[in-house]
Amino acid sequence: MPQPPYSPDLAPCYFFLFPKLKRPMKGRRYATLDEIKTASKEELKKILKNDFLKCFEDWKNRWHNAMERSLEQRYAIKFCVRLGKNATETFQMPQKAFKDDCISRSQYGKWHKAFKEGREEVADEPRSGRPTTARTDENVDRVLEVLRTDHRLNIQQIADTLHMSTFVVHGIVTEDLQMRKVCAKLVPKVLTQDQKELRVFRCQELLDLIENQPDFLNSVVTGDESWMFEYDPESKRQSCAWHTKSSPRPKKARISMSRIKRMIIVFFDIRGIVHWEFVPQGQTVNSAFYLEVLRRLKRRIAHVRTDIKDTVKLHHDNATSHTAFIITNFLARSNTPVIPHPPYSPDLAPCDFFLFPRFKREMKGKHWETVENIQHHVTTFLRSIPVEEFQGAFQAWQTRLRKCIDAGGMYFEEY
């Protein structure tokens, strides 16, 4: 049986079997390939005969829906037949109008012949559907019982299980039960109670220092490292565009990040960028390399921030290369205090909530072709950030410290 090109929505393996197999395996760790094979076989054995019957019924419905989407083109074919166009002309004209959504040439030929022979009806023959089921108290209880067994079921799955219409199930779930489907909040890590308490303690400690010393943040230099990609796909929000109801929804192919990339290390304070450098290709940011970076940073501070060279305080995260003994020893010998950073807290690191998102947003959706172009663009962008934005970032840092305390150490923003 021929399969339409680029149509996973019409392939039972893609819309039924693989999702059903992978869903229970998501979020679990399998140490070996044998464990993956065993788990896959066990999940396949759990699939009931009734599930396959429903799959093929759904397959028929999907083909039916696909045909309904071609209804507009059938009207165009009928119009061309009325104008006396032959099959070839009929195919060429709508092909220009519908482009990628155009149905196949054989389908055009079939409908052209049908209309030429006198057919008037454009739609397919009507099919018998499932009878409407009332929204009774009994059915509300039935739907609630099914949802209690699995809160991830969708409306179609509930309707199939209870032999009810999707319209009625949707009304029961959203209106009678007052429920809505929400995705799990994506966070950097599921924090333990001790980690939450540590986040609160570190935030309160830093806020107390800021309140007791109004100029405390003026001598703080914060920094981190991050990857810059030759191509980074734009986010879903960035690709949003205003359209009228009649205009087609824009489509975007799924593309991964480019393998061409370069890591950058940046340090800045409340007045702007202090130091940045690109990590050489193939170089790992280990403690030995980071030590040399800090030495260059100290020389740079002595050159561009002479007023704080003896009182500078460093802030960075808890990466292994940042907390190694040779790093802490160097900072202690050079009389450079380190502001403690709570673990798993990118929401409290100015580089992560301000600087990196700020210039990566500008790079998304564009091809930079070479590493040199990436470096040139990043360098130009870093030099163009106004001082007011750095001051705003340090002000936002204080706000985030308070939010973290108010949230009891939990993450307080979306990721």
Automatic annotation (TrEMBL):
Alphabetized InterPro entries for the sequence: Mos1_HTH (IPR041426), RNaseH_sf (IPR036397), Transposase-MT_Hybrid (IPR052709), Transposase_1 (IPR001888)
Lineage: superkingdom: Eukaryota
Compositional bias segments (type: Basic and acidic residues): 117-128
Region (Disordered): 117-136
Domain Mos1 transposase HTH: 74-118
Protein name as annotated: Mos1 transposase HTH domain-containing protein
Species annotation: Cordylochernes scorpioides
